[in-house]
């Protein structure tokens, strides 16, 4: 089954939610989210609601989908990147960085195709702790969040491998390096 | 999902959109100027800010105000043009290929699902409700 058909089927079944821009604006990139993430963004008692961060997260989703300027980091660093590839394990996990308000938020996702991401879960930056795996300082919370992303992916898209690569252009057609 | 924002969230979202549009425009001009030879040091000297401030502000629009936009615009020798158009008159054309495929596939699968609905009703007396949710989305609720 093609990726398109798979995602459509999951969307029809209610397992994935497609993020669409406002009517009249075209989608230049794609973003699907899992139901738990959709709930985390919509539920009035969620952490996102508590910190009034929904608009900021949706704004970043909108930035992605409408094809606005996207700065990218391929090594987990890159201050100012809107999207960053995280050091494995697990492999091929990315974060969307919502840098305002405080605390910041991180949305974990994977690329199912070029310019097309499946976002799975969200955490506050504060609860994640240190990130760098190279300095051997990565917190358990970071690892757990990344594995949560992988687990949700495997549950919804069993047998589907996220795309991998070393160049930003393997993932995003038009972007800037942070 | 954007349709579900409260009026207060929509107002704040509007502010974020304007600010982000200004930030994107400034960063694009900064990239052009960099290629032409302008350095971040020269930029910070013009702005009378330390290089860390310049670097921080060019890496994200979080703290941007009209003052920031104006200062960068002058530092980059830019000219600002603002156009606000009615959203209903926006027609950016078609979605990128993946979404086109989704729309087609969703329509096809919906037709198949309708056939399943009839069968299920006959055999198991289960009622399935299909409804549009968001744009062109078909969600199955039992």
List its traits.
heterodimer, A: 178 residues, alpha/beta, eight-stranded mixed sheet, 6 helices, 22% strand, globular, B: 142 residues, mainly alpha, two-stranded antiparallel sheet, 5 helices, 7% strand, elongated, disordered C terminus
Overview of this protein structure:
- The complex is a heterodimer of chains A (178) and B (142).
- In chain A, 31% of the residues lie in helices and 22% in strands.
- Chain A is of the alpha/beta class.
- The N and C termini of chain A lie far apart (36 Å).
- The model of chain A has no long low-confidence stretch (mean pLDDT 90).
- Chain B is 59% helix and 7% strand.
- In chain B, strand 1 (129-133) and strand 2 (137-141) form a beta hairpin.
- By secondary structure, chain B is mainly α.
Concise structural overview:
Chain A is built from 6 helices and 8 strands; from the N terminus they run H-E-E-H-H-H-E-E-E-E-E-H-H-E.
Protein topology:
The complex is a heterodimer of chains A (178) and B (142).
Chain A: H1 3-12, E1 16-18, E2 30-34, H2 35-42, H3 47-50, H4 54-65, E3 71-73, E4 83-85, E5 94-98, E6 105-113, E7 116-124, H5 125-128, H6 140-156, E8 176-177
Parallel strand pairs in A: 2-7, 3-4, 3-8
Antiparallel strand pairs in A: 1-2, 4-5, 5-6, 6-7
Chain B: H1 7-36, H2 40-47, H3 51-58, H4 66-75, H5 97-124, E1 129-133, E2 137-141
Antiparallel strand pairs in B: 1-2
Helix pairs in contact in B: 1-4, 2-3
Q: How much helix, percentage-wise, in residues of chain B?
A: 55-70%
Q: What fraction of residues of chain B sit in β-strands?
A: 5-15%
What percentage of the residues of chain A does DSSP assign to strands (E)?
15-25%
Largest interface, with counts of residues having CB < 8 Å to the other chain, equals:
A-B, 48 and 48 residues
What structural category do the secondary elements of chain A indicate? alpha/beta
Number of helices of chain B: 5
Reading the helices and strands of chain B in chain order gives: HHHHHEE
Which quaternary structure do these chains form? Answer: heterodimer
Widest beta sheet: strand line-up of chain B:
1-2
Q: Work out the number of β strands of chain A.
A: 8
Shape of chain A: globular
Largest sheet of chain B: 2 strands, antiparallel
């Amino acid at each position: 089954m093609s990726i398109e058909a798979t995602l459509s089927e999951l969307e029809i079944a209610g397992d994935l939610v497609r993020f669409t821009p406002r009517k009249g604006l075209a989608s230049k990139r794609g973003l699907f989210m899992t139901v738990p993430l959709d709930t985390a963004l919509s539920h009035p008692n969620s952490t996102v609601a508590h910190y009034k961060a929904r608009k900021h997260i949706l704004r970043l989703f909108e930035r992605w989908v409408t094809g606005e300027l996207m700065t990218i980091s391929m090594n987990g660093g890159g201050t100012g990147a809107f999207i960053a590839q995280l050091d494995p394990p697990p492999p091929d996990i990315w974060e969307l960085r919502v840098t305002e308000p405080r605390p910041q938020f991180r949305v974990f996702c994977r690329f199912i195709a070029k310019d097309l991401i499946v976002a799975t879960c969200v955490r506050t930056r504060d609860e994640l702790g240190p990130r760098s795996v190279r300095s051997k300082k990565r917190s358990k919370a970071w690892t757990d969040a990344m594995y949560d992303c992988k687990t949700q992916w495997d549950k919804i898209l069993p047998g589907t491998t996220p795309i991998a690569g070393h160049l930003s252009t393997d993932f995003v057609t038009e972007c800037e390096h942070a | 999902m954007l349709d579900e924002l409260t009026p207060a969230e929509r107002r704040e979202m509007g502010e974020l959109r304007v600010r982000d549009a200004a930030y994107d425009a400034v960063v694009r001009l900064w990239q052009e100027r960099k290629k032409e030879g302008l350095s971040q040091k020269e930029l910070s000297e013009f702005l009378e800010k330390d290089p860390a401030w310049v670097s921080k502000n060019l890496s994200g629009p979080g703290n941007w105000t009209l003052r920031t936009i104006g200062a960068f615009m002058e530092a980059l020798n830019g000219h600002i043009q603002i156009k606000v158009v009615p959203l209903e008159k926006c027609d950016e054309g078609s979605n990128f290929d993946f979404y086109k495929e989704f729309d087609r596939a969703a329509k096809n699968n919906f037709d198949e699902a309708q056939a399943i609905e009839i069968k299920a009703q006959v055999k198991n007396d289960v009622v399935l409700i299909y409804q549009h949710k968001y744009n062109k989305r078909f969600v199955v609720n039992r």
